[in-house]
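Help needed: design a sequence for this.
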């Protein structure tokens, strides 16, 4: 009976979450926890809901509880990484994403994590490291993520210190690939810069 009540609360919470009825969802999840306080799932869902509400500290607390109950599931680590990245706590974000990568089984999930790690390295001006993460992400990325990954690789090649001709050529290659999938102003702007550096003035116009 205890398990049935837990499942009932969980289903009601998921239904409320789908309808973006956040307070209702939280109430049902708290009810689920009362019936099975050692189950990680309600805490994971609480973390997701608090993240949607931008209640960052509540989300972090819930996700850390989920991890303490089930340390081998990567979803909580991934969400933590996203939150810490949002809060500009880049070391904590990196640590969380690397833990998430350990447990992620699916290529699309790995691509998302590697993309985030590349973004963090890019933000830290560590462009060589960013390129390594992003090129790994590119191998696994679904079509929806591909243009963002390709654009960021192209931009990272442009930002390298003591930029060489081969780096410019690489930048052009990845930016053109990005634009072949999705046309964005930032990719066109970066490609224009790369063309000028490569002395392709006609193409840069």
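Sure. Designed sequence:
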């Amino acid at each position: 009976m205890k398990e049935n009540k837990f499942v009932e609360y969980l289903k009601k919470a998921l239904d409320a979450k789908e309808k973006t009825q956040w307070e209702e969802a939280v109430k049902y999840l708290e009810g689920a926890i009362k019936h099975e306080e050692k189950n990680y799932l309600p805490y994971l869902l609480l973390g997701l809901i608090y993240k949607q509400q931008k209640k960052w500290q509540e989300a972090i607390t819930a996700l850390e509880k989920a991890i303490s109950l089930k340390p081998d599931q990567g979803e909580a680590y991934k969400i933590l990484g996203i939150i810490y990245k949002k809060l500009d706590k880049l070391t904590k974000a990196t640590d969380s994403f690397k833990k998430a990568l350990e447990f992620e089984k699916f290529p699309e999930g790995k691509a998302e994590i590697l993309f985030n790690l590349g973004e963090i390295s890019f933000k830290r001006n560590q462009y060589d490291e960013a390129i390594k993460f992003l090129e790994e992400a590119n191998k696994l990325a679904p079509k929806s993520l591909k243009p963002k990954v390709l654009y960021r690789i192209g931009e990272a090649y442009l930002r390298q210190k003591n930029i060489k001709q081969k780096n410019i050529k690489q930048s052009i290659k990845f930016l053109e690939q990005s634009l072949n999938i999705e046309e964005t102003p930032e990719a066109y702007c970066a490609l224009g810069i790369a063309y000028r550096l490569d002395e392709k003035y006609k193409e840069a116009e």
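The CA atoms of residues 6 and 184 lie 47 Å apart.
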